[in-house]
Known about the structure:
It is a single chain. Helices cover 36% and strands 28% of the residues. By secondary structure, it is α+β, with helices and mostly antiparallel strands. The protein has a four-stranded antiparallel beta sheet with strand order 2-3-1-4. A hairpin with a 7-residue loop joins strand 2 and strand 3. It is globular, with a radius of gyration of 15 Å. It starts with a strand and ends in a 5-residue tail after the last helix.
Amino acid sequence: MSITVNLYYTGKDGNARKFAQEMEESGTAAAIRREDGNLKYEYFFPMQDSETVLLIDSWRDQAAIDAHHGSPMMEKIVSLREKYDLHMRAERYRDDEEGLPERDEQFIRK
Length: 110
């Protein structure tokens, strides 16, 4: 059962976007994507809030998240969060493994 965490990074003066940009340009995000158990690590920018960045972070299971949290990568992430003075809010979801219900498929344009 996969686990997805939506992390909302919020700062001032564009710092959340600068954080995401540095994560990408430094190769840190790419290294996280290569970690065992990582399924998705993508940044998005909410249209209604220019001071927030959304990170969608998905993992195979809790053990993969725990390994990530214990990795040297976390030191880099924490350092950048401090550098850009970011505050966070998190939402956590578990995959139900059933996929999209057939009754909802009619609303998805492929």
